[in-house]
Design goal:
The chain is about 45% helix and about 10% strand. Helix 10 links the parallel strand 4 and strand 5.
């Protein structure tokens, strides 16, 4: 394991790693826009939703930016703060990737399981609850409940300490290189890059997986 110790814990990001964020973002945008799309053709309505997903940038933009674009492109004035609405309601649409729960339960037979997720305390904790991840994981940390957020190494170290292991005994699985792989590297964890949309070029050597079900066999090779 290139200097790491025997693996004792596997930690995960939530959105776009365990949780299929595209599915629940699509659901919320669809419902937010429903009153504006009811009189459009199906293709016109779909185009508007897909535009929002592009402006959303995998969750990396403030929703007020998306709200501004809706006004600019479609002259839609929602009449409320989309960012606040998003933080308080996205959890209602939360869904896991199809292989997420089975993978967690399989790994739990061998490893301690943790989750580290950036975001608003209320919304992220609700996602963990409604998907049942909080019942399977030994530890869940939401950045909104701490002074830290990924990629700060402190939040990774906090998780390892909470699980009773060393960072060098942890693998961290996430989709966002900046938040997840960089944060894991800074903390001394073994990073595994989850990217279900095809191969992403990189030269730093973290193994890549395109489905969570690949994890059990991969982890056997790095123990």
């Amino acid at each position: 394991m290139r200097g790491w110790q025997m693996l004792k814990a596997v930690l995960f990001d939530f959105d776009d790693t365990l949780g299929d964020r595209e599915e629940y973002a699509y659901g919320l945008y669809r419902d937010v826009l429903k009153e504006y799309t009811d009189k459009l053709t199906a293709s016109e309505a779909e185009a508007m939703i897909q535009r929002c997903l592009i402006w959303d940038q995998f969750g990396n933009t403030n929703k007020r930016y998306v709200q501004g674009k809706l006004k600019e492109y479609f002259d839609i004035d929602l009449g409320y703060d989309l960012d606040d609405y998003w933080e308080n309601n996205l959890w209602r649409y939360a869904a896991l990737f199809p292989d997420a729960m089975d993978t967690l339960q399989e790994l739990k037979k061998t490893y301690k399981i943790g989750v580290i997720t950036n975001g608003n305390s209320y919304g992220q904790n609700k996602k963990l609850q409604v998907t049942g991840v909080d019942k399977v994981a030994d530890l869940c940390i939401v950045s909104g409940d701490t002074p830290y957020r990924k990629p700060q190494p402190e939040i990774f170290r906090m998780a390892a300490e909470g699980l009773g292991v060393e960072c060098s005994e942890c693998a961290f699985v996430g989709d966002a290189y900046f938040n997840d792989m960089l944060g894991a590297a800074r903390a001394g964890m073994y990073g595994i890059w989850y990217w279900p949309h095809g191969k992403r070029l990189h030269v730093t050597g973290e193994p890549q997986i395109s489905s969570l079900s690949e994890l059990p066999e991969l982890l056997k090779t790095i123990m």
